[in-house]
Design goal:
This protein is mainly alpha-helical. It has helices spanning 13-35, 58-74, 80-110, 114-138, 147-169, 172-180, 191-200; strands at 48-51, 54-57. It has one domain. Helices cover 62% and strands 4% of the residues.
Protein backbone atom coordinates (compact mmCIF):
# COMPACT_ATOMS: atom_id res chain seq x y z
CA UNK A 1 0.00 0.00 0.00
CA UNK A 2 1.53 3.29 -1.13
CA UNK A 3 -0.40 6.03 0.59
CA UNK A 4 2.41 8.60 0.47
CA UNK A 5 0.58 10.71 3.01
CA UNK A 6 2.05 13.57 4.92
CA UNK A 7 0.49 13.01 8.31
CA UNK A 8 1.26 16.61 9.20
CA UNK A 9 -1.26 17.70 6.57
CA UNK A 10 -4.65 18.84 7.75
CA UNK A 11 -8.09 19.10 6.20
CA UNK A 12 -8.82 22.04 3.94
CA UNK A 13 -12.16 23.66 3.26
CA UNK A 14 -12.06 22.70 -0.42
CA UNK A 15 -11.21 19.09 0.31
CA UNK A 16 -13.86 18.82 3.03
CA UNK A 17 -16.57 20.36 0.84
CA UNK A 18 -15.62 18.14 -2.11
CA UNK A 19 -15.79 15.02 0.07
CA UNK A 20 -19.22 15.96 1.41
CA UNK A 21 -20.52 16.78 -2.10
CA UNK A 22 -19.53 13.33 -3.38
CA UNK A 23 -21.12 11.56 -0.39
CA UNK A 24 -24.31 13.64 -0.44
CA UNK A 25 -24.72 13.20 -4.21
CA UNK A 26 -24.36 9.42 -4.00
CA UNK A 27 -26.83 9.19 -1.13
CA UNK A 28 -29.24 11.61 -2.84
CA UNK A 29 -29.36 9.53 -6.02
CA UNK A 30 -29.87 6.38 -3.93
CA UNK A 31 -32.73 8.11 -2.07
CA UNK A 32 -34.19 9.31 -5.38
CA UNK A 33 -34.33 5.69 -6.55
CA UNK A 34 -36.04 4.66 -3.33
CA UNK A 35 -38.74 7.31 -3.64
CA UNK A 36 -39.35 8.05 -7.32
CA UNK A 37 -39.98 4.94 -9.40
CA UNK A 38 -42.66 3.68 -11.77
CA UNK A 39 -43.93 0.23 -12.64
CA UNK A 40 -45.64 -1.33 -9.63
CA UNK A 41 -43.53 -4.50 -9.78
CA UNK A 42 -42.85 -6.81 -6.85
CA UNK A 43 -41.40 -4.64 -4.06
CA UNK A 44 -40.65 -2.14 -6.81
CA UNK A 45 -37.42 -3.99 -7.58
CA UNK A 46 -38.05 -4.09 -11.32
CA UNK A 47 -39.54 -0.61 -11.57
CA UNK A 48 -38.01 2.12 -13.69
CA UNK A 49 -36.38 5.28 -12.38
CA UNK A 50 -36.46 8.24 -14.74
CA UNK A 51 -33.87 11.00 -15.15
CA UNK A 52 -35.50 13.21 -17.75
CA UNK A 53 -35.61 11.14 -20.94
CA UNK A 54 -33.29 8.46 -19.56
CA UNK A 55 -34.40 5.57 -17.36
CA UNK A 56 -32.90 2.54 -15.69
CA UNK A 57 -34.05 -0.35 -13.56
CA UNK A 58 -34.52 0.72 -9.97
CA UNK A 59 -32.64 -2.27 -8.57
CA UNK A 60 -29.66 -1.52 -10.81
CA UNK A 61 -29.53 2.08 -9.60
CA UNK A 62 -29.79 1.11 -5.93
CA UNK A 63 -27.09 -1.55 -6.16
CA UNK A 64 -24.79 0.71 -8.19
CA UNK A 65 -24.87 3.60 -5.76
CA UNK A 66 -24.80 1.40 -2.67
CA UNK A 67 -21.66 -0.16 -4.13
CA UNK A 68 -20.14 3.23 -4.93
CA UNK A 69 -20.83 4.57 -1.44
CA UNK A 70 -19.38 1.56 0.37
CA UNK A 71 -16.26 1.53 -1.84
CA UNK A 72 -15.94 5.27 -1.18
CA UNK A 73 -16.13 4.83 2.58
CA UNK A 74 -13.55 2.05 2.59
CA UNK A 75 -11.03 4.06 0.53
CA UNK A 76 -10.87 7.02 2.91
CA UNK A 77 -7.09 6.50 3.17
CA UNK A 78 -6.80 8.27 -0.21
CA UNK A 79 -6.85 12.02 -0.72
CA UNK A 80 -10.31 13.16 -1.92
CA UNK A 81 -9.45 13.70 -5.60
CA UNK A 82 -7.61 10.40 -5.97
CA UNK A 83 -10.36 8.72 -3.97
CA UNK A 84 -13.01 10.06 -6.33
CA UNK A 85 -11.09 8.95 -9.44
CA UNK A 86 -10.52 5.49 -7.99
CA UNK A 87 -14.18 4.99 -7.14
CA UNK A 88 -15.33 6.25 -10.54
CA UNK A 89 -12.95 3.70 -12.05
CA UNK A 90 -14.52 0.96 -9.91
CA UNK A 91 -18.04 1.95 -10.98
CA UNK A 92 -17.06 2.15 -14.66
CA UNK A 93 -15.23 -1.18 -14.48
CA UNK A 94 -18.31 -2.85 -13.01
CA UNK A 95 -20.56 -1.39 -15.70
CA UNK A 96 -18.32 -2.51 -18.58
CA UNK A 97 -17.68 -5.93 -17.02
CA UNK A 98 -21.37 -6.66 -16.55
CA UNK A 99 -22.22 -5.43 -20.04
CA UNK A 100 -19.49 -7.61 -21.52
CA UNK A 101 -20.79 -10.69 -19.70
CA UNK A 102 -24.34 -9.81 -20.76
CA UNK A 103 -23.28 -9.44 -24.38
CA UNK A 104 -21.38 -12.73 -24.39
CA UNK A 105 -24.42 -14.55 -23.03
CA UNK A 106 -26.68 -12.81 -25.56
CA UNK A 107 -24.39 -14.01 -28.36
CA UNK A 108 -24.33 -17.54 -26.98
CA UNK A 109 -28.05 -17.95 -26.35
CA UNK A 110 -29.68 -15.85 -29.08
CA UNK A 111 -26.93 -14.91 -31.50
CA UNK A 112 -27.22 -11.13 -31.06
CA UNK A 113 -24.86 -8.56 -29.61
CA UNK A 114 -21.82 -8.93 -31.83
CA UNK A 115 -21.73 -5.21 -32.70
CA UNK A 116 -21.32 -4.31 -29.00
CA UNK A 117 -18.69 -6.94 -28.16
CA UNK A 118 -15.65 -4.90 -29.22
CA UNK A 119 -17.02 -1.79 -27.48
CA UNK A 120 -17.43 -3.47 -24.09
CA UNK A 121 -14.27 -5.59 -24.34
CA UNK A 122 -12.20 -2.59 -25.40
CA UNK A 123 -13.75 -0.37 -22.75
CA UNK A 124 -13.09 -2.91 -20.02
CA UNK A 125 -9.48 -3.33 -21.13
CA UNK A 126 -8.98 0.45 -21.20
CA UNK A 127 -10.45 0.95 -17.73
CA UNK A 128 -8.40 -1.96 -16.40
CA UNK A 129 -5.20 -0.36 -17.72
CA UNK A 130 -6.05 2.95 -16.03
CA UNK A 131 -6.81 1.14 -12.78
CA UNK A 132 -3.47 -0.67 -13.01
CA UNK A 133 -1.69 2.64 -13.55
CA UNK A 134 -3.39 4.37 -10.62
CA UNK A 135 -3.01 1.32 -8.39
CA UNK A 136 0.75 1.35 -9.00
CA UNK A 137 0.94 4.64 -7.07
CA UNK A 138 -2.08 4.43 -4.75
CA UNK A 139 -2.18 0.73 -3.88
CA UNK A 140 -5.95 0.46 -3.43
CA UNK A 141 -6.04 -3.12 -4.74
CA UNK A 142 -4.28 -5.93 -2.91
CA UNK A 143 -1.36 -7.61 -4.63
CA UNK A 144 -1.23 -10.57 -2.29
CA UNK A 145 -4.50 -12.28 -1.46
CA UNK A 146 -5.13 -14.44 1.58
CA UNK A 147 -7.41 -17.48 1.61
CA UNK A 148 -10.44 -15.42 2.66
CA UNK A 149 -9.92 -12.96 -0.21
CA UNK A 150 -9.72 -15.79 -2.73
CA UNK A 151 -12.79 -17.46 -1.24
CA UNK A 152 -14.82 -14.24 -1.52
CA UNK A 153 -13.84 -13.75 -5.16
CA UNK A 154 -14.80 -17.34 -5.94
CA UNK A 155 -18.09 -16.88 -4.09
CA UNK A 156 -19.10 -13.75 -6.00
CA UNK A 157 -18.01 -15.26 -9.33
CA UNK A 158 -20.01 -18.41 -8.59
CA UNK A 159 -23.12 -16.35 -7.88
CA UNK A 160 -22.78 -14.70 -11.27
CA UNK A 161 -22.26 -18.02 -13.03
CA UNK A 162 -25.29 -19.58 -11.32
CA UNK A 163 -27.39 -16.52 -12.20
CA UNK A 164 -26.55 -16.72 -15.91
CA UNK A 165 -27.07 -20.49 -16.03
CA UNK A 166 -30.48 -20.16 -14.41
CA UNK A 167 -31.49 -17.23 -16.64
CA UNK A 168 -30.80 -19.39 -19.67
CA UNK A 169 -32.48 -22.45 -18.11
CA UNK A 170 -35.67 -20.51 -17.34
CA UNK A 171 -36.08 -19.17 -20.88
CA UNK A 172 -34.90 -15.64 -20.20
CA UNK A 173 -33.23 -15.04 -23.55
CA UNK A 174 -36.22 -16.27 -25.54
CA UNK A 175 -38.48 -14.02 -23.47
CA UNK A 176 -36.12 -11.08 -24.00
CA UNK A 177 -36.25 -11.57 -27.76
CA UNK A 178 -40.06 -11.39 -27.65
CA UNK A 179 -39.95 -8.38 -25.33
CA UNK A 180 -37.60 -6.54 -27.67
CA UNK A 181 -40.20 -6.64 -30.45
CA UNK A 182 -43.10 -5.77 -28.16
CA UNK A 183 -44.58 -9.25 -27.88
CA UNK A 184 -43.98 -9.87 -24.19
CA UNK A 185 -43.36 -8.29 -20.78
CA UNK A 186 -39.99 -7.28 -19.38
CA UNK A 187 -38.29 -10.64 -18.66
CA UNK A 188 -35.92 -9.08 -16.12
CA UNK A 189 -38.53 -9.72 -13.43
CA UNK A 190 -36.60 -12.77 -12.24
CA UNK A 191 -34.79 -13.65 -9.04
CA UNK A 192 -31.82 -14.71 -11.18
CA UNK A 193 -31.62 -11.29 -12.80
CA UNK A 194 -31.56 -9.77 -9.31
CA UNK A 195 -28.76 -12.12 -8.27
CA UNK A 196 -26.72 -11.22 -11.34
CA UNK A 197 -27.16 -7.49 -10.77
CA UNK A 198 -26.41 -7.75 -7.06
CA UNK A 199 -23.16 -9.63 -7.59
CA UNK A 200 -21.99 -7.54 -10.56
CA UNK A 201 -21.06 -4.49 -8.48
CA UNK A 202 -18.99 -6.32 -5.84
CA UNK A 203 -16.59 -8.42 -7.91
CA UNK A 204 -13.52 -6.39 -6.95
CA UNK A 205 -14.54 -5.58 -3.40
CA UNK A 206 -12.69 -8.57 -1.86
CA UNK A 207 -9.50 -7.26 -3.51
CA UNK A 208 -9.87 -3.78 -2.09
CA UNK A 209 -7.26 -2.62 0.39
CA UNK A 210 -8.92 -1.43 3.60
CA UNK A 211 -6.75 1.12 5.36
CA UNK A 212 -6.97 2.28 8.95
CA UNK A 213 -5.62 5.84 8.70
CA UNK A 214 -7.92 8.33 6.90
CA UNK A 215 -6.15 10.76 4.61
CA UNK A 216 -6.45 14.49 5.26
CA UNK A 217 -9.28 16.05 3.29
CA UNK A 218 -7.26 18.23 0.99
CA UNK A 219 -7.30 18.47 -2.80
CA UNK A 220 -3.94 16.90 -3.47
CA UNK A 221 -3.48 16.74 -7.28
CA UNK A 222 -1.41 13.54 -7.19
CA UNK A 223 -3.72 11.00 -8.83
CA UNK A 224 -1.66 9.24 -11.48
Amino acid sequence: MKQNLDLCDSDTLTGTVFTHIVEITALAIFAYGLIFHEGGTWLGLYDRVWFGGFDMHRFTLLVMFASFYLHWRVTDYLYPLARFVVNCLFATWYIYAQQLRWTLNSIIFRGTGWRFLALYAGGLAFISLIMYRVNSTKGFLKIRLDDNDILRVIWVSTLQLVAFIMLAATGFWEALTLSDVGLGPDPNASIWWLLWKLSSFWVLYPLLFKGSVPAPRRMDPRVF
